[in-house]
Specification:
32% of the residues lie in helices and 23% in strands. It has 473 residues and is an alpha+beta fold. Bound molecules: adenosine monophosphate.
């Protein structure tokens, strides 16, 4: 039986470029650098030169995986890249992406952001075709099923495969001659399309386009299959009639970078508004408002503006430390918090502070934060969270832990306040969140807050059994 650490969660960053005459591997490297926050476990780039595909993927950060030598070896005019995020048990280089699969049409490379919910079914489907997956990723299943599907070309095969694949997938694929981007019919994970001169680019977030000087054209639409080859971009669509748009609201709350634009909405401004609405919903008398860096910064600015309280910083973050969740277990996660930031006693001593953060998952970080603020002399600590209580697991690509590890699934707000040791605790309401993002409620998946999944998902137990079976096999 697999431990929690063995579960596969895929919240990743993907990037792809079709750029004759460009150093596509280097541009992909910079694109991945901008998407590092979406996954710190492994990084990889594949390039295609019209005849074959080369792949280089390793465990580690983008800057650790790539150097001049291996970038220079990645030649061609098309490239795709991936930064991977998952929990410890599945940390092995075989699971790093892009992955390469072989077929009678030639090789295909694939990078996937999202999480599938019918892996068992897909694995059975693949074995009916006399094949078994080599890795433990759902991404490989998509690749191998596409490679073995009927159809004269890749688009036909992808169209044949997509209806059986359930879950979240923003995919960037590459044949020796074409770049293909595919987004699931719900549009759960973001994927955008841009241009740099004559080169075409797809990326998880627009911050990757900005980094390489490319212009954001539009989102890849839900159910879209976008093919880019020597004839330029061509857009095709799957049937999305039995799906609804269900973009993950947690992208705005926490996951995406604040300088990314998703559905014409700058994430920074959405977060600022979350703080502003939170100040209206949970005002408190205090000396100043401070963020938990860095995600909490725009929201603390918004809270301060509406409350009329000054904005100050009570924590300084070590810029060179990754996100705390990459620590594999609870003990390391706890010490990880101290690596992440220090409190400023001379700022905090004797003060009543409002501290703004994006979410409470297990509650570990929040308890440490309150403790650090009190040790630094804060007189009162009022915690404000820019999301509703997270009461359900995500099966669609955000690694938010099993339900029994989610503190809000076990405790009410007052008990959580006591647990983290805060003087008061306020969570943004769902209505407040929707108002702050500024897009229609029905555009989103809010399942982690409401339990209303946009599609049937397996229960935790199913998932554990499945993962156990897959790892054993
Ligand atoms: P905690 O207070 O221990 O529940 O930790 C919550 C903090 O972890 C949030 O404020 C985020 O900064 C971060 N976080 C939330 N969700 C995730 C996630 N899926 N992956 C990594 N970090 C996360």
């Amino acid at each position: 039986m697999a431990k929690d650490g063995d579960q596969m969660h895929e919240a990743c960053g993907v990037f792809g470029i079709y750029g004759p005459g460009e150093d596509v591997a280097r541009l992909t490297y910079f694109g991945l650098y901008a998407l590092q926050h979406r996954g710190q476990e492994s990084a990889g780039i594949a390039t295609a030169d019209g005849r074959d595909i080369s792949v280089y993927a390793e465990m580690g950060l983008v800057s650790q995986v790539f150097d001049e030598a291996n970038l220079t070896n990645l030649r061609g005019h098309i490239a795709i890249g991936h930064t991977r995020y998952s929990t410890t048990g599945s940390s092995c280089v075989e699971n790093a992406q892009p992955i390469r699969v072989e077929s009678d049409l030639g090789p295909l490379a694939l990078a996937h952001n999202g999480n599938l919910v019918n892996m068992r079914y897909l694995a059975d489907l693949l074995s009916q075709r006399g094949e078994t997956a080599v890795t433990t990723t759902d991404s490989e299943l998509i690749g191998r099923l596409s490679a073995t599907a009927p159809g004269r070309d890749w688009v036909e095969r992808i169209r044949h495969t997509a209806p059986s694949v359930k879950g979240a997938y923003s995919l960037v694929m590459m044949t020796p001659r074409a770049l293909i981007a595919v987004r699931d019919p719900y549009g759960i994970r973001p994927l955008c399309f841009g241009r740099l001169g004559d080169a075409w680019i797809v990326a998880s977030e627009s911050c990757a386009l900005d980094t390489i000087g490319a212009e954001l054209l539009r989102e890849v639409k839900r159910g879209e299959i976008l093919v880019i080859d020597e004839n330029g971009p061509r857009s095709m669509h799957m049937d999305v009639s039995d799906a609804r748009q269900a973009l993950c609201s947690f992208e705005y709350i926490y996951f995406a970078r604040p300088d990314s634009v998703i559905d014409d909405t700058l994430v920074y401004l959405a977060r600022e508004r979350m703080g502003a609405v939170l100040a209206r919903e949970y005002p408190v008398d205090a000396d100043f408002v401070m963020p938990v860096p860095e995600t909490g910064i725009p929201a603390a600015v918004g809270y301060a503006r509406v409350s009329g309280l000054p904005y100050r910083e009570g924590f300084i973050k070590n810029r060179y430390i990754g996100r705390t969740f990459i620590q594999p277990d609870q003990r390391l996660r706890e010490s990880g918090v101290k690596l992440k930031f220090n409190a400023l006693p001379d700022v905090l001593r004797g003060k009543r502070v409002v501290v703004v953060d994006d979410s409470i998952v297990r509650g570990t970080t929040k308890s440490s934060i309150v403790t650090m603020l009190r040790r630094a002399g804060a007189k009162e600590v009022h915690v404000r969270i820019t999301s509703p209580p997270m009461v359900n697991s995500c099966y669609l690509g955000i690694d938010t832990a099993r339900r029994d590890e989610l503190i809000a699934a076990r405790m009410d707000v007052e008990s959580i306040r006591q647990h983290i040791g805060a003087d008061s605790l306020g969570y943004l309401s769902l209505d407040g969140l929707i108002e702050a993002i500024g897009l229609p409620r029905e555009n989103f998946c809010h399942a982690c807050f409401t339990g209303e999944y946009p599609m049937p998902v397996q229960l935790d137990l199913d998932k554990l059994v499945l993962e156990g079976a897959r790892h054993a096999g």
